[in-house]
């Protein structure tokens, strides 16, 4: 049995992987350029070059880790045992059988074809990275700052422990990407399917209907009206969630796991959850300040709507015990931060812009270090032990 202990090498490993991901996302937004090595004198698409900078370190981190008691992820050993025994009747995973059957089907299918948990991780976490990349590629624009994307590693870091919610978040992002490409039915089906990987995604399925109802209105109103709109909706949704929390608890209709999350949430105040919503609050204030200065294209408008929905729904989600809610639109918020930074630095000289980018990168990196330090022991991801076999 392994014990939790602070490991500086592990900490540096996570930071290096995060910086590699940041570089990959930075390359993503570039146009076609000639590759330095002139591969047969052809023009190479550096966007896919950036993809491999994200895919290889991120997925390797998930695949080549030792999974055991207290090491490799708090829930990962349970997933490994379930995977190894998924074709037998030794494991009865009632929560999956009751509702999250798509995860069970995925697990059984891979187990039947390739009985290797590492291959299972390769497929699952490879899919997650592809969805992250596709989402950012679809909604990112050339003038946006990419320094916030050093934090793109953080939702993936948490997914190393919570595989089902990681898949649900990835599917949700893929659904938004597909929906934005005018493939409405397929996108909607992908978003709905997230519920059958992790039930907590149900609250974010509402985003499609929210966007349909309020998108045109939110595009038209100015900063002050938008701020009033957010405050009113946050208060109303929070009050409704508190009433709903009591009502659901009295009905006693949830599974043991879901009921545990609900009761745990009932015994905590919003101040106990400040790391989960403080960045949203700061971003909301900055959007209020810069709302009338941002040149909103169609993609930026969509990202703005996503961030608005996230501001409104997150307090309610936390009240109802949806602890993974913070991760569903995490990348959209990073795009929002990129919009704010690029708007702020618009009036500065090129030299000053570079200084602003460096300072913002250091700021986001510092926040990442703090969040990893805060979560690593609860997630059982410290220390990281490399393992091939």
Molecular structure report:
This protein is mainly alpha-helical. The protein has helices at 8-28, 46-63, 76-84, 94-98, 101-113, 117-139, 153-159, 163-180, 184-193, 202-205, 207-220, 223-251, 256-266, 274-290, 298-319, 325-328, 330-344, 350-375. The two termini are 18 Å apart. The model is unreliable at 32-43 (pLDDT under 50).
Task: Offer a concise description of the structure.
The protein has 389 residues and is an all-alpha fold. 68% of the residues lie in helices and 0% in strands.
Question: What labels describe this entry?
Answer:
389 residues; mainly alpha; 0% strand
Query: Poorly predicted ranges (pLDDT <50, ≥5 residues)?
Result: 32-43
Order of helices and strands: HHHHHHHHHHHHHHHHHH
Secondary structure tally, helices = 18
Q: Any idea what the shape is?
A: globular
What's the arrangement of secondary structure elements?
Blueprint: H1 8-28, H2 46-63, H3 76-84, H4 94-98, H5 101-113, H6 117-139, H7 153-159, H8 163-180, H9 184-193, H10 202-205, H11 207-220, H12 223-251, H13 256-266, H14 274-290, H15 298-319, H16 325-328, H17 330-344, H18 350-375
Helix pairs in contact: 1-2, 2-6, 6-8, 7-8, 7-18, 8-9, 11-15, 12-14, 12-15, 14-15, 14-17, 15-17
